[in-house]
Amino acid sequence: MDTSKCKRCRRLGIKLFLRGDRCSSPKCAMIKRAYPPGKKSKRRSSHFSEYAKELRDKQILRAWYHLGEAQFRKYVKSVLQKQHKVEDAASLLVKILESRLDNTVFRLGFAVSRAQARQQVTYGHFVVNKKPIDVPSFMVKKGDKISLKPSSLKKASFQNIKTYLKKHKTPEWLKLDAESMEGEVVGEPNLEEAAPPVEISSIFEFYSR
């Protein structure tokens, strides 16, 4: 059992759904032990300094999208440079994060978590517009078609994928054909539907210091 992901949720005090279906079951660590890991205390402080809140929000969103610090900072900094030229900087950041290929694979239902989606993309299980893409950070755009390689259906992680996809609900910016195992980008991700678990403005404040 991968307890490191569970500890991350407990440390940040929020369910990040890092382990797929287990996170929605009674076995979830945030249900059984909804307090920070360690033996010192089972109480979580409800008082944060402004800096602590900004740091926590940054850590939560970075973990939510399963990104390393350097890559996450790059995305935020790129938006900060444009914030005076765009109408909604928060929406732009979320659009960038949601448009990554690994997140798109997760949103389509081909993976139960973003961590699994990233691994699947890296292993070369997907093609975009019939071209093999093994870069998780690849940015999809409207009109792109993402499909699972037929040969990958034999892999253990995809054994029950068709059954799972039939009950999976995709966001409005994606269209899924469960029979052909193909998804299409039919719109653009938006902040409201993505529903990030933090205030994006708090993250901008953190990186603006």
Which stretches are poorly predicted, pLDDT < 50 over at least 5 residues? none
Radius of gyration: 18 Å
Tally of DSSP helical segments: 10
CATH architecture of the largest domain: Roll
Order of helices and strands: HHHHHHHEEEHEEHH
Mean pLDDT: 87
CATH homologous superfamily of the largest domain?
RNA-binding S4 domain
CATH-derived topology of the largest domain:
Structural Genomics Hypothetical 15.5 Kd Protein In mrcA-pckA Intergenic Region, Chain A
Number of domains: 3
C-alpha geometry? globular
Q: In whole angstroms, how far apart are the ends?
A: 38 Å
Helix content: 40-55%
Task: Characterize the main sheet.
Answer: 5 strands, antiparallel
Tally of DSSP β-strands: 5
DSSP strand (E) fraction? Answer: 5-15%
CATH C-level label of the largest domain: Alpha Beta
Structural class per helix/strand content? alpha+beta
Polypeptide structure, described:
The chain is α+β, with helices and mostly antiparallel strands. The chain has three domains: 1-37, no CATH class; 50-96 and 197-209, Ribosomal Protein S4 Delta 41, Chain A, domain 1, CATH 1.10.1050; 100-185, RNA-binding S4 domain (Structural Genomics Hypothetical 15.5 Kd Protein In mrcA-pckA Intergenic Region, Chain A, Roll), CATH 3.10.290. The chain is built from ten helices and five strands, in the order αααααααβββαββαα. It has helices at 3-12, 29-32, 50-64, 69-80, 89-98, 101-108, 114-122, 161-166, 191-194, 200-208, and strands spanning 126-128, 131-132, 145-148, 174-177, 182-185. Strands 2-1-3-5-4 form a five-stranded antiparallel beta sheet, covered by helices on one side. β4 (174-177) and β5 form a beta hairpin. α3 (50-64) packs across α10 (200-208) and α4 packs across α10. The relative contact order is 0.14.
